[in-house]
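The protein record filed here:
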Amino acid sequence: MKIKKDLQQQKQSSGIPEHNSKLSRRSFLQAIGVSAAWVATAHGAFAQNSDSMGSPANEQYLYVGTYSSPNTAPGGVIPSQAEGIYVYKMNLETGNLSPVQTVKADNPSYLAMAPSKRYIYCVNELGEDDKGAPLGRISAYEIDERSGRLTLINTRSTQGTWPCYCAVHPSGRYLFAANYGTGTFSVFPLGDEGEIEPMSDQFQASGNGSGPDPVRQEGPHAHMMLSNPGAQHVFGIDLGGDSILAWELELATGKLMPGPVPQAHVPSGSGCRHLVFHPDDNRAYVINELSSTIDVFDFEPRRGAFIWLQSISTLPQDTTFTRPSFNPNNPGEVPTGTNTTAGIKIHPSGRWVYATNRGMDSIAMFKVDPESGQLTSAGWVQSQGQIPRGMNIEPSGTFLYVGNQNSDTIVVFRIKSDDGQLEGPIHIIDSPVPVDFAFGSFARS
């Protein structure tokens, strides 16, 4: 693959408001605690990934999910030329990528790394056959620890359509999948060798009748399923129902039981898409696809309860971008002059949040208040391509990788350690329909 460098970095205005440095003792200790934990984790990872001679590894494997040929990505304008999952080596000093392997797969649009980093999982985002039978699948791959290359282990039906998200439970014992089309959330046990075992449970979301938005919310649409950092609960994001569903997972059986607070909600018609938790597990940030907003919640991990704090736009105050009138024949389309959101990530330090805008084609940056957890806009940078769908932050917090779905490029930004601003792009890498990123183990020489 051709790799291009943007040799002249773009200078971006920070746009960060003056911050009040007078913190309470509680907020100061929380900030110090999270930062110390992040530094300790990064230092531990560095130490554990030195070779036998004691020299540190300077490369790490990166896995990129795509919508594959001959399919057209949601909101895409031409059929994809991608073949499946793309494996790269990432240089930890420069952030640049070098290709390792291409693994043929059907629409592996979202990836999930096992805690051991020995296995990786993907959804196969497919609809239904001509008889209406669901075609959605989920697949498991073994990762060669030396080369980073993938070998297929097995694949199973998600018993739903258009599965768009997967995640591994922190225990490593279960795999979750969200079926967008059928509005169902699936649970699969995982075997000792990483294989996906028969489904142990599935939950059918109810949506909200015909929906506030009759095109995008005409029924339930499962968009994400994940655990909180402490693993006390499992949550499902239903875009169609503007709701966050909460369960407790029985580890012995793989069954979902209703949580003490079974659901939370975002404003009607917002279309919640993804959720990230603060590293302290006391706050949560929900990105809403349809309204281009982020809702901030206090989170109580013992009960799995969300208390709303704030809504903030991912667009500038004086924006001319509007909410789309969605096309029922291509609901993912983003017409010129309109905007929807896609990805949301929080920095490992817990100090900054990033979100992607499709239409404005930008990454919105936010500063996290260490006391309240609320967000303040810190500016925007252009994604240097069209329809930036997915992104991820490299585990040390140094680089942000953004996938421009309709421009076939991965764009790399450097994250400034003092204020979280994005510098660059420092690299623009040709890669077909990149939509998700998962970080693997450190490469060995």
